[in-house]
Amino acid sequence: MKLLIDSKNQKVLFAEASKPVIDFLFNLLCLPVGTVVRLLNEKGMVGSLGNLYQSVANLNTDYMVPSQDKDVLLKPKAPLTSSEIAGLLPANDAGAGDTQGSSLFMCPGRCSNYVTYDKNIPCPQQCGRIMNTQLHCVGKNLPDKGISIKGGFVKEIVTFMVMDDLVIEPMSTISSITLLNKFNIREVGSLHEKVVELGMDEGVKLLKASLQCKTVLTSVFLKKNME
Ligand SMILES: [Zn+2]
Asked: Which residues are close to ligand 1, an ion, with C-beta < 5 A?
């Protein structure tokens, strides 16, 4: 990602970004709130959601409905994720919750309306047979692991302009000239370009800054000690 920096005011005017960066930023909108809190927890959460999250984490499971798993709240799965953004945000613990398949099973006697994901448990009706008759889904499939969007969100060939406050538009020469006017930049000499890498550290910082301020790029890439 290429930043255009006003060095006099120590401010990022805008960034020139290609598809992976835009996909990453767009994908932030798909994150469940629980995931956002979990990601930001180590680096300090804003507002009170951190306390809400911690309360769930601290709550003894004796107080929970037996069939509920706290991870549903603490490590929620995004209903949608782009497969293109791996490595920019820490993932949920690998394998957690993935031990069960997504196939549904029922009693071979078809004696009830019960279905299960676990093909080793007995039918709750009188017959008690193992519920191992696999059901076949027709129509649209909604896997419980969430839908992975292959290919991300935006087209590869377009370069985008990301403003400091995360307004994003396709890049054009005219738009950048208009912007320089808008920012009242008279001395082009005070501008310089800086190429920055977007890694997991920056990914989490971007998420955090986007919740806190309207100078996201400046805080993440120019102010090293934003805490
Ligand atoms: Zn049965």
From this structure: 107, 109, 111, 123, 125, 127
